[in-house]
Amino acid sequence: MLVRWIPAAEGSDLNRAMDRFFGRPLFNLFDGADTELPRADVSETEDAYQFEIDVPGLDKNDLKVELKESVLTVSGEYKEEKDEKNKAYLSRERLLGRFARSFVVPGDIDDKKLKAEFKSGILRILLPKTERARSREIPIQVS
Questions:
Q1: Helix (H, G, I), strand (E, B) or coil at 118
Q2: Residue 129 CB: number of other CB atoms within 10 A?
Q3: What is the reported pLDDT for 27?
Q4: Alpha-carbon distances of 21 from 18, 24, 65, 93, 95, rounded to whole Å
Q5: Which stretches of the chain score pLDDT less than 50?
Q6: What radius of gyration do the chain's Cα atoms show?
Q7: How far is residue 122 from each of residues 42, 67, 72, 75, 125, measured CA to CA in Å?
Q8: Model pTM score
Q9: Is the dihedral of CA 61, 63, 64, 70 positive or negative?
Q10: Alpha-carbon span 109 to 50, nearest angstrom
Q11: Least packed by Cβ within 10 Å: which of 62, 101, 129, 142?
Q12: What is the pLDDT of residues 21-39, one digit of tens each?
């Protein structure tokens, strides 16, 4: 079973409400990062845990994936383009700043076969299960 870990998750709703009230993002008090968290789909097959994380506009060099003590952490940074000198924004909705998403994963991961692939703004991470963790049918003997 996978458990999604978001420190002080209730604060995220408060943070978004404050942003709406003031008409602009002030800061992310509760996410532990400077920006919103990217969306993630997490699934499980018999052989692996799979993560698909939306990170549009980033390059693979802007991302870091780390598995440490059963916690998968994906972090990165959206950077502001510096060539916009005389531009006055009426509205700015693009993400800027650093983020980190962490997921608690079971300890049955085969860490020699981990894979991460980045394509078209989607980071795909495959955490294969150990052979022992895969389910198998137990034959029933008649006595």
A1: strand
A2: 19
A3: 42
A4: 5, 8, 34, 15, 18
A5: 10, 24-34
A6: 20
A7: 13, 19, 16, 13, 10
A8: 0.65
A9: negative
A10: 12
A11: 142
A12: 655 444 444 444 445 788 9
